[in-house]
Amino acid sequence: MKLNLDIAVPSKPEWIEAVMNDFPAFLQDHADCERKASAMAMSFVAKYPDRVEIIPELIATAVEELEHFQQVYELMASRNIQLTHSIGEDKYVKSLIKQCHSGRTERFLDRLLIASVLETRGAERFKLVAEAQEDPQMARFYKTLWVSEAKHGHIFVKMALNYFEEEQVYSRLRWWIDREAMAIEQLEIRPALH
Length: 194
Fold this sequence. Notes:
By secondary structure, the chain is mainly alpha-helical. It has helices at 13-21, 23-47, 55-78, 91-97, 104-132, 136-161, 166-186.
């Protein structure tokens, strides 16, 4: 059974052009995103310690995202690209978070589903990066990441299904996919994951 749903709109061809035209900037942003993804998974552990059924998987996801950060950092170091001094604001993620419910239980569901949508978008974009690579090693690296992100898209929906009815989860997930489509369409084109 497929747990997550596909994104509603594909990334624009101009996006992958921007990435390939300034790959060092993309790598810097990618590293930042992996750090944030790891922190996000751990923030669920910190905010919802009573959700014991999902804590092991959240920790495993956080560790995997941190390993991705390490891999991107090593790639950057091999190309003499430094990390950014500070992680900038992610307008895309911020626009989605602003639309979350405010109640503790409803917000928990929304945050899990936003995480699923973010990972699904990441998978789509890493697939584009893998396919655009001329270097076979880089293509393999981004293919590995694309598969991992797709898996994470499923994981967060599976976590939600531990606590909420299937109809509620998928109805709200469809709502989030529509909101994500609007958010991605409004983003400026730049060499960044979002």
